[in-house]
Write a structure and sequence with these properties.
The complex is a heterodimer of chains A (about 325) and B (about 600).
Chain A: H1 2-30, H2 46-56, H3 64-76, H4 89-124, H5 129-143, H6 146-164, H7 182-220, H8 223-230, H9 235-265, H10 267-272, H11 278-288, H12 291-319
Helix pairs in contact in A: 1-3, 1-12, 4-5, 4-7, 4-9, 5-7, 6-7, 7-9, 8-9, 9-11, 9-12, 11-12
Chain B: E1 6-16, E2 22-33, E3 38-42, H1 49-57, E4 64-72, E5 75-76, H2 82-88, E6 93-96, H3 100-103, H4 110-121, H5 127-140, H6 157-169, E7 175-179, H7 187-204, E8 207-212, H8 215-221, E9 224-229, E10 232-238, H9 239-244, H10 249-257, E11 275-289, E12 295-310, E13 314-318, H11 325-333, E14 340-345, E15 348-349, H12 355-362, E16 365-368, H13 372-375, H14 382-392, H15 397-410, H16 427-439, E17 445-449, H17 457-474, E18 477-481, H18 485-491, E19 494-499, E20 502-508, H19 509-514, H20 519-526, H21 570-578, E21 584-586, E22 589-591
Parallel strand pairs in B: 3-8, 3-9, 6-7, 7-8, 13-18, 13-19, 16-17, 17-18
Antiparallel strand pairs in B: 1-2, 1-4, 4-5, 9-10, 11-12, 11-14, 14-15, 19-20, 20-22, 21-22
The chains are: A mainly alpha (about 325), B alpha/beta (about 600).
Chain lengths: ~325, ~600
């Protein structure tokens, strides 16, 4: 087990390095750090532009490999460089990850949990009303862009607030300024979290329920459940005690990746609800031609993906004794 | 007559598919079993045996309905609620399935599953008490105590069936149903498992409903037999009566199709010609990998095997599962250079053969693999599957169709099947298609891996007849791998017995069956079920199964399991453990045993 972890860590570090370098190269090649200086009035003097770019290490006149080396040596000292807006990219990412975790983790876990439960329930009651309703419902959600789901939720919340007569549900940004005291602040944050969490949970649950339903149907058609019933389990207990765990195994890997990847992948939700999370950061970095910010995000994502891979393997091995680490 | 244990009256089972119409699987069955009775239920595939068993257990698959009456100790089971029925499964009725692997929970230790069943039916039972009861049950079915901690995929097929039996008898059921419990096992393990089943049954005084297609098993282990055909029970009689004076034509057909290893083959076979396949001192090891570039060790599958097959001759390779039979065939017919040992096919040494030679040999040496369902591409029609080797052999396109039809005809299939897809065929037909695909290139050497395993009696009999005809008509040279000794008797000219990766005896078929020399051969023959209730019941002289070995065995590979253990004193035993017995010619055969002339039949 320890040997597995050690080997895996070395391997992952190497892969992360490669991915990071490639990320930096792509960001440098594709983004144009000069763009934001053009068309300014009054025009920015060329010497200023050069010195700003040189300071950030993103001057296109420096050979790209030299820039990469400079950036890597910074990385070795724990710095991801500076953003075009000033400020350390590393520090910015740290703040934004905290925001994203708050915003998305509950929603992602909830979405996966609900999805799995609905999928199992649908498979068990295949073609009955519950299965039909959830199947149709999940297709409607899957066919709706997440952005629309979010806006619809906002509309509903506005109606609700109007009906109650005061703004119970708030949905702009992470909190409202001006609340005093721990309790008031917590309630305020919870109120802000409600809609984004719900939006994410709905979207994820829709896709997860489809996968889980199919997996569960596969397991139900094997003799496993039949065997459990032959030993005296009722239909229900055979399903829950023996069927569901086996059906969860193939889903575990996908679930771990999904929960983890919302950290950088939920930009639509973040933008819609005006949260400054990681997804939004990548978008603004690309828009601003901010090479360091984009490369930093890619580096973070690479590490995240590899870490998730490890977690996924551990979860899989824990659920399924046939897997040997 | 005492109150019946099981009383089935006018039972019908229907499977209603939405559009494709209804299948009437069981059509009015009447069946009674007395407490403690052993009833054999036999019939070909599609006779309705499985549907009947599922109905009695209340475990019909989705879409199945039953009408009529099934009374178990007076309780009506048709229409019984899930909760009440579940309480009955275990202490009342219990079942041993054909393949315990698929019914055991793959992610739970087998011991824990027995504990679970015990506690499910007796809520007052403490965990510790359930554990010790589990240990007793495992001892009763002859499982080593370590198996309690194993997962289902970690133990061999025979052990899994023992676990299945332990699970079934855990709550001392009054009726034990065994649905083809040994069909997937080889004869020595089959005899052991059936004995365990019988012992378990006697210990609990349960009635046993033994469902099987093997009339040898029926003859050896049951009191009374019910013959099913097309959803009906066509005949019920005591086992001796049924075998000696069958009344119904269906029973007669079934009995006639039952292979009997005691019948010698008639007809003279041509003298064999020059060697077509020569294997010398072949060793095959399989690596056990645990990921890329991570070796967990190796398994010695074939440990120095030498064989010669001459033109026009049929050599059978027999032995228990894990003996290395398939590994030999796979190594030879991959036509790749062996890592250790030599293989000559049609005079060409594979170690030095170039690509062009191998390609040419491919058309002359064909292999029909064991699982023909897996070997046929589900999205390829029969015609294109059979035509494929012709493309490899670069036969001109316009000749192919005639060749395909010819090959299908040779295996008794009409040209109408050219456009059919594998899922539309029965198991026997798929087997024939696979054979046609091998024959279409007109090979000189044909290998068949378990050609009749898993087929029902009459289908297997038909296929064996076909193979015998092909052998005689085409003058094929064949290597047949099987653990079905009745098939061997019918097909083979010579037999090589393998165990533990080595050949321990080789002789002409009649010599081997009439006077087996090696103790393992004797054990193998003693374990073959014979379709005759008066014949002695098959016994397992060799116990246990081959365990995978990472290194080659020092002495005899049977040292721990030898049927001659009782005859051996310390001095002899030491010799068995330390010195590997070589193959030595003895008159009409070669034998690898230090003490082959000891023991009861010599």
């Amino acid at each position: 087990m320890l040997r597995f972890l050690a080997r895996r860590a070395v391997w992952s570090a190497a892969l992360a390095l490669v991915a990071t370098c490639l990320g930096y190269l792509v960001a440098s090649a594709a983004l144009d750090p000069l763009a934001r200086f053009r068309g300014r009035n009054p025009p920015v003097p060329d010497s200023t532009v050069q010195s700003v770019l040189d300071a950030a290490g993103t001057n296109p006149q420096t050979p790209i490999l030299a820039r990469l080396l400079a950036w890597l040596s910074g990385l070795a000292q724990g710095s991801l460089g500076t953003s075009v807006r000033g400020g350390e990219v590393g520090a910015e990412i740290a703040t934004r990850v905290t925001t994203s975790v708050q915003l998305l983790l509950v929603g992602a876990l909830l979405g996966v949990g609900i999805g799995v439960a609905v999928g199992v329930a649908g498979a068990v009651r295949q073609h009955r009303w519950f299965d039909r309703v959830t199947t149709q419902g999940s297709f409607v959600v899957l066919a709706t862009p997440p952005f629309v789901v979010a806006v619809l939720l906002m509309l509903a919340a506005t109606r609700f607030n109007d009906a109650v007569g005061r703004p119970v549900i708030r949905f702009t940004g992470p909190y409202t300024v001006g609340h005093e005291g721990w309790w008031a602040q917590t309630m305020d944050r919870a109120s802000h979290l409600l809609l984004p969490t719900l939006a994410l949970a709905i979207v994820l649950a829709a896709s997860f329920s489809r996968y889980q339903r199919a997996m569960t149907l596969d397991v139900l058609s094997t003799d496993l459940v039949r065997g459990a019933r032959a030993r005296g389990h009722t239909r229900r207990s055979a399903l829950l005690r023996h069927g569901v765990r086996v059906a969860l195994i193939p889903m575990s890997t996908y679930a771990v990746y999904t929960v983890g990847m919302v950290l950088t992948g939920a930009m639509v939700i973040e933008l819609t609800f005006s949260w400054h999370g990681m997804g939004e950061y990548l978008l603004t970095a690309v828009r601003d031609g901010d090479v360091n910010a984009a490369a930093g995000t890619v580096a973070f994502t690479a590490v995240l993906v590899l870490a998730l891979g490890l977690v996924a393997d551990l979860v899989h091995a824990w659920l399924d004794p046939r897997v040997r680490l | 007559m005492p109150d019946p244990l099981l009383d089935v009256r006018d039972l019908h089972v229907r499977f209603g598919a939405h559009r494709s119409g209804e299948v009437h699987a069981v059509r009015g069955v009447d069946l009674r079993m007395a407490p403690g009775e052993v009833l054999g239920l036999v019939g070909g595939s599609g006779a309705g045996k499985s549907a009947l068993v599922s109905a009695v257990l209340g475990l019909l698959p989705h879409g199945g309905t039953m009408t009529g009456s099934v009374r178990f100790e007076g309780t009506e089971l048709v229409g019984l609620g899930d909760r009440a029925f579940s309480a009955l499964r275990g202490p009342g009725l219990a079942v041993v399935f054909q393949d315990s692997l698929s019914v055991l929970d793959p992610v739970q230790r087998v011991g824990a599953q027995v504990v679970e069943v015990l506690r499910l039916h007796d809520r007052a039972l403490s965990r510790a008490a359930a554990r010790s009861r589990t240990d007793e049950l495992f001892a009763l079915v002859g499982l080593p105590s370590g198996v309690v901690q194993a997962f289902a995929h970690e133990v061999s097929g025979g052990m899994r069936q023992r676990v299945g039996i332990a699970l079934a008898i855990a709550c001392s059921p009054r009726l034990l149903i065994a649905d083809e419990p040994t069909s997937a096992l080889d004869v020595t393990v089959q005899a052991q498992v059936l004995d365990v089943l019988d012992r378990a049954r006697q210990a609990s005084g349960a009635g046993l409903l033994l469902v099987t297609h093997d009339l040898g098993v029926v003859a050896g282990w049951t009191d009374r037999v019910a013959v099913m055909h097309a959803g009906r029970v066509v005949e019920q009689a005591g086992v001796t009566e049924l075998f000696e004076a069958p009344r119904e034509p269906r029973t007669v057909t079934l009995l006639r199709a039952a292979p009997d290893p005691r019948t010698p083959r008639h007809g003279r076979r041509p003298d064999p010609g020059e060697p077509v396949l020569e294997v010398t001192d072949l060793r095959v090891t399989h690596r056990l990998d645990a990921g890329p570039r991570r070796r967990r060790g190796q398994v010695v599958a074939v440990d120095g095997v030498s064989l010669t097959v001459r033109r026009g001759e049929v050599l059978a390779l027999v032995g228990e599962s894990g003996a290395g039979k398939t590994s030999v065939v796979e190594q030879v017919f991959a036509l790749s250079p062996p890592r250790e040992g030599g293989v000559r096919v049609l005079g060409h040494d594979l170690t030095s053969a170039d690509r062009a030679t191998r390609r040419r040999l491919r058309g002359q040496a064909q292999l029909v693999v064991q699982d023909t369902t897996d070997a046929l591409d589900p999205r390829m029609s029969v015609g294109s599957a059979v035509a494929e080797p012709l493309a490899v052999a670069r036969v001109p396109r316009r000749e192919r169709r005639a060749r395909v039809v010819g090959a299908l005809e040779a295996v008794g299939l009409g040209p109408g099947l050219v456009g059919a897809y594998p899922h539309e065929l029965s198991g026997g037909e798929r087997r024939r298609v696979a054979i046609a695909r091998a024959l279409v290139v007109r090979p000189t050497l044909l290998a068949l891996d378990e050609p009749v395993a898993g087929l029902d009696v009459s289908v297997a009999a038909g296929l064996l007849g076909l193979l015998a005809d092909l052998r005689d008509d085409l003058g094929l040279t064949c290597l047949v791998v099987t653990h079905d000794l009745a098939a061997v008797r019918r097909l083979a000219d010579r037999v090589a017995v393998m165990v533990g990766g080595r050949v321990v005896e080789e002789a002409s078929t009649d010599a081997l069956f009439d006077s087996p020399a090696h103790p393992y051969t004797r054990a193998l023959l003693a374990a073959v079920p014979v379709p005759d209730p008066r014949a002695p019941r098959p016994v397992a002289l060799v116990t246990g199964e081959r365990l995978w070995t990472a290194a080659r065995a020092e002495g005899c590979c049977l040292a721990d399991r030898c049927p001659l253990l009782a005859e051996r004193d310390d001095e002899r035993e030491r010799r068995c453990r330390e010195v590997e017995p070589g193959l030595v010619s003895r008159a009409d055969r070669t034998v690898a045993c230090h003490w082959w002339d000891l023991g009861p039949s010599r």
